[in-house]
TrEMBL record:
Signal peptide (residue range): none
Keywords: Repeat, TPR repeat
Compositionally biased region (Basic and acidic residues): 1-13
Residue ranges crossing the lipid bilayer per the database entry: none
Keyword hit for Chaperone: no
Protein name according to UniProt: Tetratricopeptide repeat protein
Domain of life: Bacteria
Region Disordered, residue ranges: 1-20
CDD domains linked to this entry: AdoMet_MTases
Residues of the Methyltransferase domain: 298-387
Keyword Acetylation: no
TPR repeats: 126-159
Length: 459
């Protein structure tokens, strides 16, 4: 570097005028001083001159990459990282920085490829896993990103930044319950962390749990002195009555996480008997059949792990099931009972193919729906002439019954008999059977319920 260049460095604040032999060391010291003083742009100027003074120094290029990244110069950071790695590919931090620089520069697939190489070399590196997770998320590969985020959290369980990013992606993927379970232990460990409380509040909103959401958001707002987290608007909306209903996200997340122990808990601990009760009632009314057609076309709404499929398979020539929770559907598929299984909403399922079914079964499923108007209307279209819809509900009695349905403290809906009859009549369905039942126990006591079977008029 000549005298004029050194003088220019001094004018730009990169360091004092020095003898040529001292330039690299002085520029390095100046650059790091500027970094420590939060002057990323000044640091970048000094390190840029250090690279010019010694272009073969990987350390100089690595320092330039750090400073240009901090200064928001994505292209400069990428170029400097590339030079550093080319000069000394064995330096792990520079390779990590290169993957990050590729992502920041918008070259997502290259960032993914680089991250995959790093995680293959060091599968136990939380930093490499996190970098790959971010690249995959940026590339729109959410499922793969979730896997890498989970690995990063497992390797570094106390890292709140990683946990917050994973929680946000879980909410986006429909597993807000997983986000809550991930963040709550961290919030108990650090109760003054506003970001954690705000993220938990947003997850509860996605799960349609307004009371819990308000608790978390109010805590976050009290800790967020400058209002950067935007909790006030969310609190106002919730206090105005938003978020009172159950959501598909809540139901899907709940049962996906419950899938592995569902049968054991439901049958063993809760005395779940809805499928058996429905099958007995269907048999009692006599067979539903079409002349010349062996077996029935049966659709199991909210099939879960397939417990109702066990009860109704003997009646079915074609047995289909649908459930919101993918892991529940996997469990049902493992039973090898169903001819057709899908992940989806029960209302959408009955609306999908008009006149397709002889029998619709909903065993302990309507407790996750409040307004049944769309379901009954869809059932009427989905059934063949003389087809039947059999279901259980939790029973709503007393003064509350005038509302038709209500969400209870267990986050399950109860419906009144009058409401069910009203829904059937509005859909043009005839009530063949409406009787008390107890589809399961709660705290050792039978839950009051209703079992109904309605029929579509014959052609």
């Amino acid at each position: 570097m000549d005298r004029d260049s050194t003088a220019q460095a001094d004018r730009e604040g990169a360091g004092p005028l020095v003898q040529p032999g001292d330039v690299p060391g002085i520029l390095f010291q100046t650059g790091y001083d500027r970094l420590y003083a939060a002057d990323a742009a000044g640091a970048a100027r000094a390190f840029r001159l250090a690279c010019a003074a010694d272009p073969g120094s990987g350390e100089a290029w690595g320092a330039l990459a750090d400073s240009t990244r901090d200064a928001g110069e994505a292209a400069g950071a990428l170029a400097a990282c590339g030079r550093a790695v080319a000069l000394d590919p064995g330096v792990w931090p520079w390779r990590i920085a290169l993957a990050e620089a590729l992502r920041t520069a918008g070259r997502f697939e290259e960032a993914v490829t680089t991250g995959q190489v790093l995680t293959t070399e060091r599968p136990d590196s939380a930093t490499a896993r996190l970098g790959l997770a971010r690249a995959l998320a940026a590339a729109g590969r959410r499922d793969a990103a979730l896997e890498e985020y989970r690995e990063a959290v497992a390797l570094r369980p106390g890292d709140r930044e990683t946990a917050l990013e994973l929680a946000a992606l879980l909410v986006e993927a429909g597993d807000a319950l997983g986000a809550v379970e991930l963040l709550q232990p961290l919030s108990r460990r650090d109760p003054e962390d506003a970001d954690l409380h705000a993220a938990i509040g947003r997850a509860w909103i996605a799960l349609q749990e307004p009371v819990k959401a308000l608790t978390a958001l109010r805590r976050a707002e009290g800790l967020d002195s400058d209002g950067r987290l935007g909790c006030a608007a969310l609190i106002a909306a919730l206090e105005g009555g938003a978020g009172e209903d159950l959501s598909a996200a809540y139901v899907r997340a709940l049962f996906d996480r419950y899938a592995d122990r569902f049968d054991q808990d439901l049958v063993g601990k809760l005395g779940y008997s809805a499928p058996a009760l429905l099958r007995e009632a269907v048999d009692r009314l006599g067979p539903v059949s079409e002349r010349g057609v062996p077996g029935l076309r049966v659709l199991d709404l909210g099939c879960g792990t397939g417990l109702a499929g066990v009860a109704f398979r003997p009646l079915a020539g074609h047995l289909a099931g649908v459930d919101l929770a993918p892991r529940m559907v996997e469990k049902a598929r493992a039973r090898a009972l169903y001819d057709e299984l899908s992940v989806g909403d029960v209302v959408a399922a009955v609306e999908a193919v008009p006149g397709a079914w002889n029998l619709l079964v909903a065993a302990d499923v309507l407790v996750y729906l409040g307004d049944l108007t769309a379901l009954f209307a869809g059932a009427a279209k989905a059934l063949r002439p003389a087809g039947r819809f059999a279901a259980t509900v939790e029973r709503l009695d007393g003064e509350a019954a005038t509302s038709g349905y209500a969400l209870g403290p267990s986050r399950r809906y109860a419906h009144s008999e009058a409401y069910l009859r009203e829904m059937a009549a509005a859909a043009g369905l005839t009530v063949l059977l409406m009787e008390p039942c107890s589809p399961r126990r709660e705290k050792g006591v039978g839950v009051p319920g209703l079992l109904f079977i309605v029929e579509k008029p014959a052609a």
